[in-house]
Amino acid sequence: MSTLEIKDLYASVETKEGRKQILKGVNLTVNSGETHAIMGPNGSGKSTLAYTLAGHPKYEVDSGQVLLDGVDILQMTPDERAKAGIFLAMQYPVEVPGVSMTNFLRTAVTEVSGKAPAIRTWTKELTTAMKELKMDPKFAGRSVNEGFSGGEKKRAEVLQLEMLKPKFAILDETDSGLDVDALRVVSEGVNRAKAKNDFGILMVTHYTRILKYIKPDVVHVFAQGHFVKSGGPELADELEETGYDMYLPEGADSESALA
Amino acid sequence: MADQKEISIPVADPNDPYAVPAAMPSSADNAPRSFAVDDFAVPTRKQEDWRFTPIERMSEFFDVFEPSGLTQVSISMIDGSPVDTSSVDIRTVKIGDDLSGTVSKPNDRVSAVEWNSENSATIIEIKRSLDHPLLIKVLGTDERLDALHLVIAADSQVHADVVVEHYGDAKLAEGIEITTGDDAHISTTFIQEWDRGSKHVGNHRIHVGKDSSIRHSVVTLGGDVVRIRMDQDFGGEHGEINMLGIYFVDPGEHIEHRTMVVHNAPECRSRVVYKGALNGKGAHSTWVGNALIEPTAPGTDSYELNRNLVLTPGAIADSEPNLEIENGNIVGAGHASSVGRFDDEELFYLQSRGIPEKEARKLVVRGFFGELVEEIGIEEIATHLMQAIDRRLARGESEEMKNVLEEK
């Protein structure tokens, strides 16, 4: 049983117009086995929160703490955070030319688990996971994310989630750009990995459709750099109806992606 | 005396004036070719050929010297087994005798100095096709100046692979002549894994026979100052030259490769692909790729490419493709050159999967070179090269560790 506690987190990013604070007092506690959906209008800082937790150098923490089982991960490099048990499934996974998926996954698993996986069980585990995600076995030999379609990239992210077995998975718009079938396959992959490893999930999304497949325990509304409302799964349906306008200040442009 | 090469320029057809350009002398390849040192001025940074080179760090190679003779050369098959002398004739001759000096002539002062300093040449004449690569190990044992002259000659219709490995501690001026008969298909691979502080000037003179192909690979992974110049031409139609280069440069090192491809015969094909990674402040690489398509070479297909990956700030990569086309009737003549930084997003992605920064850089460099090595298509050579690259990447690690320990 693990706990991830975000305490009064403030973070900024350097922009052309100067330094801009995006996260303004984020507070959240997630336990193993819990699924938290984070919803909110465009530009509210949801992705910034995801990247800040993973340690992207672009985002600078101004104050606050992020405790994983009582240890502040904000002092750690991104690879140390991964080893501690944080996994970020990215909205736009990066292409790494020349590095094969197999080589990359094996290196990552070796680093995260602290020892090289035994060849036989490793190959079996990888083949099974790829099959379940309906990934072409040829992907293993291709360069990381290079020439992958949007859907293939998301499957590859979930494959990594299954292989790396984190304590907490942050899914940053994993549902974006997926057709109905791919959404189901990807969601099933997340559920399978969760059933096996019982990790906590922070799921950033614009749409309620993924919530049909990955059932949230808690739904949060994120606006203006912090959480403004939390509730049960029914809150998602409510947002579907009303949009985010009520959470934005008077006169603010709502770019709500909720159709 | 210096020879100015004479080329016969075809007369333009009045009905198709663009098939042959106006008669004019080549500017890309107007340097003299000569065995006499004094036909070449002492290099300065003001000369086009030397403007990227830190000449003060290699001035010992500018005048004829007495070679130490301490460089050790051993020749075997790649697995260490002895060479079948009925397939390969290996002999040492007085320089200028036998096949030595038959492939073009020195093209700069250091090459002429090598020729005039060295007393003997090793001739490796491949008479029959080889099933496995031949391995020539060149071991530097001493920091005194030495010279070495090798001739690799493949008879007509021979298929063979040759690997030349350089390692140890050296100050070496090296001349290599590579030549084939007709319809021969060979690969020659040169690996430089010199110890820190070593210096190496090399001159490869390459002649591709009619209907023949040569895959020429250069992999430079170490040395304080390394400058290797390749000069190549064709002996007839349908020749193919594939030049491939890999270099890895550490702080304070200068690694320079200059390729000169001369299309002087019809319907020949050339590819030059060099890739380098630079690591750390003061690492300096130079690639100058010259391609000359002479009026006598219709149907030429030529392409050259150089990519540089700068891993950490403060490294300098000079990259200069030069292309001179004197014939309008060609298939293609392209070039590309780039210097790029190791992408921060790539680094973050790998790190976010638990891979530490240093390991991530290694993974990316290995991939960057691996793509090129795969293209060689000869498994024994590819494996050999990847082993050398892995050794080099691992060495970086232990060096760093050493520095940490020394600082304590």
Automatic annotation (TrEMBL), chain A:
InterPro entries: AAA+_ATPase, ABC_transporter-like_ATP-bd, FeS-cluster_ATPase_SufC, P-loop_NTPase. Keywords: ATP-binding, Nucleotide-binding. It comes from Bifidobacterium canis. The keyword Nucleotide-binding applies. It comes from the Bacteria. GO terms for molecular function: ATP binding; ATP hydrolysis activity. PANTHER family: ABC TRANSPORTER I FAMILY MEMBER 6, CHLOROPLASTIC (PTHR43204:SF1). This is ABC transporter ATP-binding protein. The keyword rRNA-binding does not apply. It holds the Pfam family ABC_tran. Residues 4-249 form the ABC transporter domain. Belongs to the ABC transporter superfamily. Ycf16 family.
UniProtKB/TrEMBL annotation, chain B:
It holds the Pfam family SUFBD_core. GO terms for biological process: iron-sulfur cluster assembly. Residues 1-30 are annotated as: Disordered. This is Fe-S cluster assembly protein SufD. It comes from Bifidobacterium canis. Residues 144-368 form the SUF system FeS cluster assembly SufBD core domain. InterPro entries: Fe-S_cluster_assembly_SufBD, SUF_FeS_clus_asmbl_SufBD_core, SUF_FeS_clus_asmbl_SufBD_sf, SUF_FeS_clus_asmbl_SufD. It comes from the Bacteria. Belongs to the iron-sulfur cluster assembly SufBD family.
